[in-house]
Amino acid sequence: MLLTALTACGKPAGGEIPGADAGSGGEKPEVVILVNSGDGDEPYANVVRDQLAKAGFAPTISLQPDYASWRAQVDAGNFDLAITYWVTTTGAPDYAIRPVFHSQGDFNLYGIDDPKLDEMIDLASTQSPEEYMETYSQIEDYLVEEMAYVLPIYVSMKTLTYNSDLLEDEGMHVSKSRSMIWETVRYKDPANNDVLPYTISQIYYDLTPMDPVRSDDSSTFTPICNSYIRLIDLTDTDELTTDGTLSRSYAVADNGCDLYFLLRDDVNFCKVEDGHAVDTGELVSAEDVVYSIHRMMDKDCVPDHKNYASFEAVADAEIVTDLEALRAVSTGEGRSVVDVLQEGAPTEIGALTADTAAVDNAAGTYQVVRMSTKYAYPQILNSFAHSSGGIVSKKQIEAINAEYLADPASYDVKTDVLYGEQSWFTEGEGYDNTMVCSGPYIPIVKTDYGVTFEANPHYMPTNTEFSPTIKTVEVKFIKDMENALSALRAGELHALYNIPTSKIDVVKEEPFLTTKEIDSNAYNYCAFNFKGKFADIDLRKAAQYAVDQEQLSAVFNGRLIPTYSPLTPVLGTGKALKADPAKSAEHLELWRSRQTS
């Protein structure tokens, strides 16, 4: 997931991208480093600037107060390097690399169109974990060392700091990849659950749509993960799990292409009436699951599908009703699919049904969905753990998007409003909250100050671990980390994710705050503007070898983890790009020689 996006284009051909401006020459190449101070990146930028200056560059920092300002400069091309991030929120190596660097990636904002890189990425996606390590290692080396597409800086620790006077420790999860979980949060004093909102914050106030397939950024990533249930999830350390999901269990057929999900029957959709969350009385059913999967794999289901590339391998989805035929399907371990699914069922699986009204797990009647892929794609389960894997209401989506679905060509972005737009639940004369959610919470209203969510009244009501206990969640809009940190220390926030490394010692001084942390999948790097002087591969390599990640980490008390590519933290390859002043000087001199020739 791209936390701070950037725009670039072109493919290196030899030393330069054809037609690109390679710079005006000069002994010291002038370099503008674009930084979003709202993300707390200024301290890191200062170190990178000093290292580049020492290597013979003439760097300056363009400091922007927030993401909107930062992005405006990116879109205008007013930068040479931009400090940015990629977070592998599915825990899968394919997601670490495909969205940004594959020519068809949803977030290929660089404009990289490299057939060799595409071929390697596609090959690795079809391989098992035992097979793909070598392929991904080759991808890493090609991406970083050979082509110098990125300048790695560090991988960060992921932290969650919370008010431990108020909140129980057990329910506070800091996870390597997945979003913050709201439904497990518990107050120490149960009397607070109905009256004291769980208050957190986020930097982004302009929200992309609350429709899982239409968003893949930080403005709605956590809200969507908590508003729509998924078929599969990740543990804190990135193992696949059905805990807290719509699946009681799942099984993979021996062909590697058919996956079966046994659905639970204790989750209803909720909606908003009179300013509060209410139970629709409608089960989140197999029909909704099949509909949701078909949307995930269809880039034309909405005009701004953000995630279809993650589901391109999906061939179809359908409800399975023949229990005896299913018994004959074997898994890779030689067991029956039914036997594997039975392990997660509270009663014996006696019948399967497509009729939502007939579902009764206690009586042995279940629903099973089969999802098939075009080819064996072992990482597809991780895609369903992503926010875009959220299960939506077929009834509500079709009702709201009816006009677009009937005639997509007639859609006008200026006048037509599809399901999930923030305008539907923003306070004011236009407020008409049409959201219907399958998850533990639903957005009630958005104001200038934040978004209020309320608990789904019928969400796993007998599951004490995952049924939401706190009635209200308040997500405040606080545009920069400094102010968010002040709000946390003042007791105005109950929890704060990812406090900058330079501020960890500050929160440790507060006796009522506790911090949990884990190595993250957040790959921090400088992105090159390929339309400018960094079209030259030697200049890129000169910059790469100038940045000393170990020195950068030392400035921040050794809390930064040296890295290489977005794959490094996901697969634990242990690679890091080592600073080398001699190599930096060599490549800088090669660049200079072309400026005077």
Main sheet: strands, sense, barrel: 6 strands, mixed
Rg calculated over all Cα atoms? 25 Å
How many structural domains are formed by the residues? Answer: 2
Low-confidence segments = 2-25
The helix tally amounts to 18
Give an overview of the whole structure:
The chain has 597 residues and is α+β, with helices and mostly antiparallel strands. It folds into two domains: 30-156 and 519-596, Dipeptide-binding Protein, domain 3 (Roll), CATH 3.10.105; 167-455, Dipeptide-binding Protein, domain 1 (Alpha-Beta Complex), CATH 3.90.76. Strand 6 (233-234) and strand 7 form a beta hairpin. It is 27% helix and 21% strand. Residues 2-25 have low confidence and may be disordered. The longest helix has 18 residues, at 129-146. The chain is globular, with a radius of gyration of 25 Å. The relative contact order is 0.20. Helix 3 (93-101) packs antiparallel against helix 4 (115-125).
Write a concise synopsis of the structure shown.
With 597 residues, the chain is an alpha+beta fold.
Summarize the SSE layout with pairings.
Elements: E1 30-36, H1 42-54, E2 58-64, H2 67-75, E3 81-87, H3 93-101, H4 115-125, H5 129-146, E4 150-163, E5 198-202, H6 221-227, E6 233-234, E7 240-241, E8 247-252, E9 258-263, E10 268-273, E11 276-283, H7 286-297, E12 314-320, H8 323-327, H9 337-342, E13 351-352, E14 365-366, E15 368-373, H10 380-384, H11 394-400, H12 402-406, E16 436-437, E17 441-446, E18 450-455, E19 472-477, H13 481-489, E20 495-497, H14 504-508, E21 513-528, H15 537-546, H16 549-555, H17 567-571, H18 581-596
Helix pairs in contact: 3-4, 4-5, 15-18
